[in-house]
From TrEMBL:
<keyword id="KW-0539">Nucleus</keyword>
<dbReference type="Pfam" id="PF15684">
    <property type="entry name" value="AROS"/>
</dbReference>
<feature type="compositionally biased region" description="Low complexity">
    <location>
        <begin position="16"/>
        <end position="32"/>
    </location>
</feature>
<dbReference type="GO" id="GO:0019899">
    <property type="term" value="F:enzyme binding"/>
</dbReference>
<comment type="similarity">
    <text>Belongs to the AROS family.</text>
</comment>
<dbReference type="InterPro" id="IPR023262">
    <property type="entry name" value="AROS"/>
</dbReference>
<dbReference type="GO" id="GO:0005730">
    <property type="term" value="C:nucleolus"/>
</dbReference>
<feature type="region of interest" description="Disordered">
    <location>
        <begin position="1"/>
        <end position="49"/>
    </location>
</feature>
<feature type="region of interest" description="Disordered">
    <location>
        <begin position="93"/>
        <end position="120"/>
    </location>
</feature>
<protein>
    <recommendedName>
        <fullName>Active regulator of SIRT1</fullName>
    </recommendedName>
</protein>
<feature type="compositionally biased region" description="Basic and acidic residues">
    <location>
        <begin position="101"/>
        <end position="115"/>
    </location>
</feature>
Length: 135
């Protein structure tokens, strides 16, 4: 007498007893299964409030609020009025400058001052009188 299940499975494909199943070695498989699913330890339930310290929301807000250091920084900057020598500042700037031509400052050419005349306004009037004959 054949049952309905035996008719559906092809011959020679019946289920093997649990000890002879492929891919499972008795004691090793049990250890792997135990490692995968661990029984929850007592006292580690995170849903309970027991043992928690209640934090004040206001304290947390004040702790995480950014602090403005502007006033202290301004006092610090205005306190020191020591100015370094021009030669020292030029040396530091030269050390930090790159070697490329775009990093080099443009060469400063000294502007030639217009040469003043040796003659004064009186000399010009005297010359006009002598040359043009104007009194």
């Amino acid at each position: 007498v054949n049952t309905a299940l035996e008719l559906l499975e092809p011959p020679g494909r019946a289920k093997a007893p649990p000890g002879l199943q492929r891919g499972r070695a008795g004691p090793r498989a049990a250890g792997a299964a135990r490692r995968r699913k661990r029984a929850p330890e007592p006292g580690r339930n995170k849903a309970t409030v027991k043992g928690r310290v209640v934090k004040s929301v206001i304290e947390e807000y004040h702790k995480k609020k950014p602090v403005n250091h502007l006033r202290e920084n301004l006092q610090y900057m205005l306190k020191g009025r020591l100015v370094a020598d021009k030669a020292v500042t030029e040396q530091v700037l030269a050390q930090n400058r790159g070697r490329k031509s775009k990093d080099q400052p443009p060469e400063k050419t000294e502007k030639k001052k217009p040469e003043g005349t040796v003659f004064t306004e009186e000399d010009f009037r005297k010359f006009e009188r002598e040359y043009f004959g104007i009194p």
